[in-house]
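User: Predict the complex.
Assistant: Input components as received:
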Amino acid sequence: MLEVSIFVSYVILSIALGLTFVRLVIGPSLPDRVVALEMIATLTVGFIAVYTLSSGVTAFLDVAMVLALTAFLAAVGFARLITKGGGVHHD
Amino acid sequence: METLMAFVVGGLFAAAIYMMLRRSIVKLVIGLILLSNGANLLLFTQAGMLRGAPPLVPLGATQPEGVVADPLAQALILTAIVIGFGVLAFAVVLIHRAYEVVEADDMDQMKDTDT
Amino acid sequence: MTRELNIQSLILRSASQLLLPLLLMFSIFLLLRGHDEPGGGFIAGLVAASAIALHMFAQDIHQAKRVLYADPRDLVGWGLVFGVISGVPAIFKGQAFFTSQWLEFTMPILGKIKVGTPLIFDIGVYLVVVGSVLLILLTLAEAED
Amino acid sequence: MTDVVVSLFLLIGAGFMFVAALGLLRMPDLPMRLHATTKAGALGGGLMVIAVGLEFFGDVAVAARAAAIIIFIVLTAPIAAHLIGRAGYFVGLPMWSKTLKDELKDRYDPQNQVLLSPGEVSSEDKPDRDKAE
Amino acid sequence: MLLAILSGFLLATVAPAVHRQTGMNSGWVLAILPAALFLYFLSFLPAVGSGESIVISYPWVPGLDIQLSFLVDGLSLLFALLISGIGFFIVAYAGRYLEGHKDLGRFYVLILSFMASMLGLVLSDNLISLFVFWELTSITSYLLIGFNHEDATARRSALQGLFVTVGGGLALLTGLVMMAVVTGSYELSEILSSGDALRDHGWYVAIVLLVLLGCFTKSAQVPFHFWLPRAMAAPTPVSAYLHSATMVKAGVYLMARLNPSLGATDLWLILLGVFGALTMFTGVFMSIRSTGVKQVLAYSTVMALGTLTMLIGVGTDTAIMAAMAFLLAHSLYKGALFLIAGILDHEAGCKDFLQTGGLRHALPITATFAAIAALSLGGVIPMFGFVAKELLFEAVLEAPSLSGLLSLLTVASAILVVAVAAVVGIKPYWGPRVETPKTPHHEAPPAMLAGPAVLASLGLLFGVGVAMVDRGLLSAAAGAVYGSPVETYLSLWHGFNLPLMLSLLSLVLGLTIYFNWDRFRTATGFMDDLKRFGPERAYDKSMDGLVSISEWQTRVLQNGYLRYYLLTILLSTVALVTFSIARAGGLEIQMSLAGVRIQELAIVAVLLLAALVSVTTSSRLGAVASLGAVGFSVALIYVLFSAADVGITQVLVETLTVIMLVLVLFRLPGFLGLTPQALRIRDAVVALAFGVMVALLSLAASSTRFADSISEYFIRESEPSGFGRNIVNVILVDFRALDTLGEIVVLALAAVGVYAMIKLRAEDNRK
Amino acid sequence: MIGPLAWNILLAMLWMGFTGSFTGTNLFIGLALGYLVLAYALRGIPAFANYATKVPRTIRFIGFFLWELILSNLKVAYDVLTPTYYMKPGVIAFPLEARTDGEITIVANLISLTPGTLSLDVSSDRKVLYIHVMYLDDEAEVVKSLRYLEHRALEVLR
Amino acid sequence: MRPEVALPVVLPLLFGAISLALWRYRTAQRVIGVLGTGTLLAAAVWLLLATWRDGVLVMHMGNWQAPFGIVLVSDLLGAIMVVLAAISGLATAVYSLTAISKRHEHYGYYPLLHLLLAGVNGAFLTGDIFNMYVWFEVMLVASFALLILGGERAQMEGAIKYVTLNLVSSAIFLSGIGLLYGLTGTLNMADIADKLADVEDTGLITVIAMMFLVSFGIKAGAFPFFFWLPASYHTPQVAVSALFAALLTKVGVYALFRVFTLIFTQDVGYTHEILLWVAGATMLTGVLGAAAQYEFRRILSFHIISQIGYMIMGLALFTPLALVGGVFYIMHHIIVKANLFLVSGLVYRLKGTYELKELGGMYRSHPILGLLFLVPALSLAGIPPLSGFFAKFILIRAGVEAESWWIVFVALLVGLLTLYSMIKIWAEVFWKAQPEEHANRPAPGPKGTGVMYGTIAVMAAMTVFIGFGAQPIYLIAEQAAHQLLDPQIYIDAVLGDRS
Ligand code: NA
Ligand code: NA
């Protein structure tokens, strides 16, 4: 039962990753890409959760913990950049 | 998986090199980042890839149960990542300063030094 | 837009007041348990540096510096000194450099505790990482302004 | 029993993740993409982490970490969304053509570096001066 | 012995101080050393004259078989006596000639070092120490030629001399090393007794060519003769003499020295004979074509060097004896004439023979000794020069082969030499008085007259009393060159024979030329045009060529374009690796995608696509964002394959990198489409080639495993010995703490670097 | 609020010490028991009385919020998953009752977390929150529900 | 336990750390700068003597047995390199007392110097291939920072090329390590050598050897990888240039020596033949590059390349004598090249320019400096009896014995062309009269040049000593070469005699 769910979850997440990636590629603006990047981080948390279930090793939750915090930092950085007027005029 | 990773590594190297061959110094830096990722993954691949077996000793045990992933390679990669980060930080600021001085994101305007 | 907008986000600013201690706690947690679980001086240092960096983005450089209190260059220097020094005691016991030296305590409640030079080393790593990353980020941010 | 619950959480979480990703791709402008990722993403991630917590029920370390992850997500996701959405607005990204109204329009005052509330008028930015320019 | 040779260098180091102390008498004071040396070497004469040879050895670099060993036999003693004896007059003479010159102190340093180097050269038994002194003469000579260093011509001439002689010297070194490899020794005394070892070895031709290249360049043999007259840029006739008549004989010395081991073959005879004869004729002909005092003398020196070379090449005992006699005679008269030229310059300021005349009244003593020296040069009986010339004719007439050619050239040269002798001995002093730049008021001072007087007189003395030098010194020297005692002895009068006839003929024809000087010069004027095709042109061309090649290479290789540097490096790598793979007969590769999970495939796909996007996007920040995606994917790979710490680190570093890029890049402009399509394709091909190469290597290395990993040890020992359950961290802070220490040093350094880069600039901007 | 909470945690610690079991479940029990003891014993002290009422309120609020979260997420999910767009987006100015920075931040973030609304910025005078709304069919209705959310949140916070 | 093995690494690390911690106190940094490098020299000499007396010394860092922990190994080559590093470090530190401005000191000059030395010494002493990578990076980043200290445009442009190409080198190095680790599962170089010794199919190893060849070739500045060097070495503070010129490329050369004598000796006929071609091309391109230059330090920079070729030639010929020559060459070159740069710095100090065409008249005005220039310059060109002569002589003899005629020819030709460049400098800077139009160029002036003179004089004295006292140097080089040619000595010392 759980194995099937894990597999299905992996598939769903993989598709989601693909969709997110398309947004990352097509943009069109930098903020859109940043959102996509955030989403990738969130998806990574999801992957790690599934992986933890499938492997039974909980150590990887630490990675998810750090991810949850730092992906946010990247977004803050980008937001600051955009707000300060960088990267838009030339995009 | 090692086969797949070989493609990944090769792809990263190729992308890195293509970027480094551009005239833009920003692309140069992006190339450096990709390059360092490629080299790290190569090392990772060479250590053999194992799913779900982190090199951790369970509480109360003296050794992990069963086979675990190669901790040495992981330690090396960790070191390499950190070193790469330090170097990259320097490189990023360097291109920033170079841009300020040269006032162009163009390597072709940075060739007077040589000749 | 003719002029640069430079309005700080109130939400971010006040959230950072909460996130800063949270992140710092998290970083110390990662540092101390690194020997047994994922973590360690380097990771912890990066998290701590991120915390201050967040503060810098949310507030300003001066606030970040005030929070950090120490000059990052001092952190780097003394962190390195810690790191190197931790390898030296062994030499007085006639062992090779960086031979780890352990002290075992038995403390009430906490039980047996082993303290060793690797921990001092890890703390050195932590300080250097915090100092270096922040030195870079703060300098860059200052130059940007 | 546990398996079923865990699976449920996992699959629903993954489902929301998918919704978030699809929303990110399909939604016509930045704020709406943010809607999708922030909410569905956070919820999806949270549910999946809860699944992990349930699987290892009774293991404090896992429960604590699962809780920490959820707290971090809940704390950071809305702030990030706010910052990005605001940044997008700052730089004047176009909104979807079917957007009904925009009360934030022209409320940023670059002169004084403030965001005005509705009805508030910048002292230096009188309408007649606008006309003169 | 070592002290004797090094004393010159030692005195050189204090010479300026001595000069300051003793003022105008410094020349005499410093000349004490060469005088003492002369006497010291003279003390060897009895032993050496009776056929002994003395070897004295001091260890230097025994590991390389390099000793400071010295060989005193007839040949080296002859040279040592000439060097120290003439050195005495030179130093004394210089003190007066350059009196008041601001660089006289430095001049002493150079001249004394030069003398010491020459002594070392001719006395060395060890080939390498010989070479050391050889090169030292080149360097000191360079410094002497360029003594007037603010004059561009002097610098150029000095460089030319140096370049030619050092170049030849390097060939010589190779030859010497090869000789040593063949004979197993660097000691001349052993090599000379090695019989036919060298002649029979397969390297013989190469050795001869290399050694001769060294000797020919040093001794200004055709076609390397051009540097020598140029060397007359040297400030004074003194130094001019030194390296035109002394240093250049180093080459002759070495040919003579090696004659027993290398000589007596057709190759040797032809090379030395032909080149020597050509040099002889070219030298004297150019001498005739010149008018500058030093030029004439220098070219006549070239002639003498050619003669000596030719004689050594002929190699019969008569020839060798002739060579030794000619060597001595030449040193005496040429020394006198150079010093006299110096007097002419010093007293009358004359630098061109055509601009002089009638000086006999003002400079009677000078005129007298000039005449005596010129007679010896011209080979007029009873001068020692005559003795030498007679023997020369005899030697070439008896030459085992090429006799006709050599004789012809010798006679032709002899004729011209007579004319030259007349020009230098008669022209300045006789005939009507010609206005000179300076009007001589008095005769030269004794210090300057002593040399010419003694040297010229000796030319006469040895002529009349041939026996004085014949049976001790010269026969010993000739014996050393010949390899066994020589049977030929010198005499002033051989009776009426062919050589005497030729002597008379040359005298008559030579004087005829002198009296028809102008007509002769006009008739031969066309020869000057030939210079354009001469070896000097070749030298100039090759120097220009060197600079052009250098500039071309810099344009091509060091062109300033980073991407071409990269391209070169990468292509070289690919080439090296591909070639090595091909040589290894391909690599063993096992490929399998079995067991790859869907999520892994997805992540890998995203990773690669993100990398592709970051490469192809036209948006700078889009590239950064894609880079973030690459970073997260890589982190996920780490996590999925059991590397938690690495995953965390990757995530954190990725984030900080993004933040840093964001802080730095926001003022930078966007990407410009700078590169044409074709170049992009080229770069893509190179990049792909490199990528494929790395992938192949990765596959090959994954498919091969020679041993198990040492990480088993860490897994086993982490908890028990490292007291930690996170094995990766225990490795980092304990097992391999040194790595981690280095790693944080890197980080600290990067931070300091960044800080300095930005702050130092900011400080500058404020100023 | 901090003082009572600290007391509560201290009591939980003591409980674990007494029982000698340092597990998560036991901590939870300790906390619950501690809360009950405090709520009962110190109900005369205002701070503790306040604490006593706030804890269930907080728990209720969390429940309410989660429910809202899931409900409106489904709405967005439906919109995302079906081919046609039903969105009627717009940016509205929402006058805030929250006053302190902390309150404003929490309210704004809660609003952002609920589907359909996204806090874009706070006016510099802190009176207005600009919100991007996804379904602006009935603005009054939207403002009303936002107000309700704000009220419940402030109840917990104050 | 032999502390001397680790001291050359630990001491500069410690001094670097302390002077970084004391960044506020300039005087303290200066004092630590000189005392620290002085102490380092003492420790280095101690190590050399100990290694000379007792053979290959090993310290198992952290007391973890080889091949598991990191070992520091001092064989004679390593010990020699450490001594040379210490000498150039001390010379630089002393010279810097007056040559480096207050501002630069304030921004970390001395800590960078110490840590650079730590990196260099770490690379020389480590017996672990990955640890070598780490020290390479330490050295590299320290050199990055030193390179840009000053922030001028030329520095930036030069640094970008320097940084990029060196990072490419690092990436290739790291990849090579990964591949080697994949094959052997170990990082300890002795262990790698040991495990590869029994391998029959050596094709893949040779292929991987090429990666190391390229990586170290870049670091060493060999053909065709040297581009970063002429692009950057003339841009930093001259004391820094001197240190770089002395040390950095030599680390690459050292690494080539190490891996191509210890690890990659499976197919010498192939790998070392390639090295020989690299050597020849390096010599030629380096020396030709210099011929067109008219800037003091650029000429010197190009000559670093040509000289590197000689060292590689020693390795490539791979006979006992050739290795002696290579080692001797390294020793000679570090002293001489550092000194030439120091001279250029003093000239700049006095005249305010590095352009030969603007310089002149210094033989008249500074005859002592002229002499001090001639000693290293002629030595570089291989004029006897200075140090360079013996270095070249040994190589030529080795080449002749190996009957590698073309390389002998190239070596000699390059010697001649080196002389051409040195004489060009001599003629332009010292002999030629100073051109009128450049006579009054502003220059920092002679204040404090005494220290610089002193440093240069001591280095020149060493050059003369290596020439006249070539025997002891030769003996050391010979012993070092002996150890290199018999890797079993190294392996046994590190892993213990397991037979
Ligand atoms: Na660490
Ligand atoms: Na909402």
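Chains B and F do not touch (no CB pair under 8 Å).
Let me know if you want any component modeled separately.
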